[in-house]
Automatic annotation (TrEMBL):
Pfam families to which the protein is assigned, alphabetical: ACP_syn_III, ACP_syn_III_C
Protein name as annotated: Beta-ketoacyl-[acyl-carrier-protein] synthase III
Keyword presence, Transferase: yes
Purpose: Catalyzes the condensation reaction of fatty acid synthesis by the addition to an acyl acceptor of two carbons from malonyl-ACP. Catalyzes the first condensation reaction which initiates fatty acid synthesis and may therefore play a role in governing the total rate of fatty acid production. Possesses both acetoacetyl-ACP synthase and acetyl transacylase activities. Its substrate specificity determines the biosynthesis of branched-chain and/or straight-chain of fatty acids.
Keyword field contains Acyltransferase: yes
Homology family: Belongs to the thiolase-like superfamily. FabH family.
Length: 310
């Protein structure tokens, strides 16, 4: 039995905050932000929209896209480091709102790699025949833990949600291989105290090395090579980090998903949001080989190789 993506959805807040808007708040410039990160603007949720609201909107779309009803969902995994409150989990909050009364629901904390962790967990439950339909959501409201006076972090992050229903797909399709990893010795480089604290250079070095390694590892595990990759969906943290991964795979530029310019770094939601955009634009087709790869605070990382289609 193969687990794969059978429904997808995303939600982005309407409010756009441009680099020029940030120039008025911190000592930065549009030019610095663009050239160092690739970010032009990001979405910021209003006070009345918390993490669970964004998760709900994305989840509703993914369930509809999978042609299922909420009662068909057996498992809800929400990847987030910005839950509405420490408990109950965001997963339980949206279970109630969706009416997914048959689901087991919990959150996973793996920062920007969280969606990869969630998808791999879902795969285990589907392929062991424990559950039939798993809803995995990456969602963050990073704006509420961002110090808007700290130019090292304020320019990087955005809010959003991306969701996928993972279920059984046909032979040869679905998640072919994965890699997950953690290195708690790097916890000091990226964490939340009251606000996000980051040693950008250390995270950058780790990310460049790990993103490339993980892509190569999942391809090897699937018995495939760089030349087989049709599309790369990297965590949208910084265009320079993403470019390093693309070059490791020797992929042409049009085969990598880029949304960091519009949404900034949305942590756990960046990979599923990018996936939805690529599907909506028709750039991903059935039987394409896709590599998704993420890294984040923890330190954590995760990648999958996936043959698209139901
Ligand atoms: O999802 C995981 C989350 N984290 C990441 O992915 C972060 C990974 N790291 C990065 O993306 C990059 O390290 C940054 C974008 C955070 C920083 O880029 P950098 O090329 O590593 O810059 P830097 O930290 O080496 O700083 C270069 C200069 C410094 O000035 P001096 O010391 O050379 O005078 C900084 O103070 O740029 C300055 N700087 C800024 N200037 C204008 C730092 N932030 C800003 C800013 N605007 N926002």
């Amino acid at each position: 039995m193969n687990a794969g993506f059978i429904g997808i959805g995303r939600y982005l807040p309407e409010r756009v905050v441009t680099n020029h808007d940030l120039e008025k708040i911190v000592d930065t410039s549009d030019e610095w932000i663009r050239t160092r990160t690739g970010i032009e603007e990001r979405r910021i949720a209003g006070d009345d929209v918390d993490t669970s609201h964004m998760a709900f909107f994305a989840a509703e779309k993914a369930i509809e896209n999978a042609n299922l009803s909420a009662e068909d969902i057996d498992l809800i995994i929400v990847a987030t480091v910005t839950p509405d409150q420490p408990f109950p989990s965001v997963a339980c909050l949206i279970q109630e709102r969706l009416g997914a009364k048959n689901a087991v629901a919990f959150d996973v904390s793996a920062a920007c790699a969280g969606f990869m962790y969630g998808v791999v967990m879902a795969k285990q439950f589907i392929e062991s025949n424990t559950y039939r339909h798993a809803l995995v959501i990456g969602v963050e409201k990073l704006s509420k833990v961002t110090d808007w006076n700290d130019r090292n972090t304020a320019v990087l992050f955005g809010d959003g949600a991306g969701a996928a229903v993972i279920g059984q797909v046909s032979e040869g399709r679905g998640i072919l291989s994965f890699e997950l990893g953690s290195d708690g010795t790097g916890a000091k480089h990226l964490y939340q105290d009251e606000y996000i604290i980051m040693n950008g250079r250390e995270v950058f070095k780790f990310a460049v090395r790990q993103m490339g390694d993980s892509c190569i590892n999942v391809l090897e595990k699937a018995g495939l090579g760089k030349e087989d990759v049709d599309f790369l969906i990297p965590h949208q943290a910084n265009i320079r980090i993403m470019e390093a991964a693309r070059q490791r795979l020797e992929l042409p530029i049009e085969k990598m998903s880029v949304t960091v310019d519009k949404y900034g770094n949305t942590s756990a939601s960046s990979i599923p949001i990018a996936l939805v955009e690529e599907l909506e634009s028709g750039r991903i087709k059935d039987d394409d080989l896709i590599v998704m790869v993420g890294f984040g605070g923890g330190l954590t990382w995760g990648a999958i190789a996936l043959r698209w289609g139901k």
